[in-house]
């Protein structure tokens, strides 16, 4: 099986999971960020400010932009005491995919991080 991701999430920016696809890639681009710590780059996610259908612009290290559209905003999944189904669902969100997608991961609620929160977006187009 695959070894689990090792999340070293930086405090001031969002962190890309090294074993996920690169920005604009054909698989699952997984990016994690804090909602309550450091610059709290993903606070808006934890506050419920994103919506299905909203577009996200992702830039890679070379400055190329890729457009994604949010397709799923699942309910928060508990970090402790998650059911087998919830734990499997959380793992599936960060697993590799065939489709070109972007998965954002942060904590919830804003102050305490008792849950993981996911945002799933599909690649619309490479903007170049």
Describe this structure in words.
This protein is mostly beta strands. The chain is built from 2 helices and 7 strands; from the N terminus they run ββαβββαββ. It has helices at 43-46, 84-94; strands at residues 15-16, 28-32, 55-59, 65-72, 77-78, 101-108, 115-126. Strands 1, 2, 3, 4, 5, 6 and 7 form a 7-stranded mixed β-sheet that branches. The chain is globular.
Strand pairing plus helix content: what structural class? Answer: mainly beta
CA-atom Rg in angstroms: 14 Å
N-C termini distance: 36 Å
Q: How big a fraction of the residues is strand?
A: 25-35%
Order of helix and strand elements from N to C terminus: EEHEEEHEE
pLDDT averaged over residues? 87
DSSP, total strands: 7
Please mark out the parts with pLDDT under 50 across 5 or more consecutive residues, or reply none. 1-7
Can you give the helix content as a percent range? Answer: 10-25%
| Shape designation | globular
| Main sheet attributes: strand count, strand direction, barrel closure | 7 strands, mixed
Q: Count of helices?
A: 2
């Amino acid at each position: 099986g695959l070894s689990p991701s090792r999340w070293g999430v930086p405090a001031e920016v969002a962190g890309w999971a090294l074993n996920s696809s690169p920005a604009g890639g054909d698989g699952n681009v997984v990016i994690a960020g804090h909602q309550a710590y450091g610059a709290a780059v993903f606070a808006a996610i934890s506050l419920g400010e994103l919506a299905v259908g909203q577009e996200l612009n992702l830039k890679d290290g070379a400055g190329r932009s890729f457009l994604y559209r949010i397709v799923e905003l699942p309910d928060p999944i508990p970090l402790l005491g998650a059911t087998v189904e919830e734990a499997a669902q959380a793992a599936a969100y960060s697993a590799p995919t065939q489709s070109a997608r972007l998965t954002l991961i942060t904590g919830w609620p804003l102050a305490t991080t008792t849950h993981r929160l996911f945002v799933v977006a599909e690649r619309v187009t490479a903007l170049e």
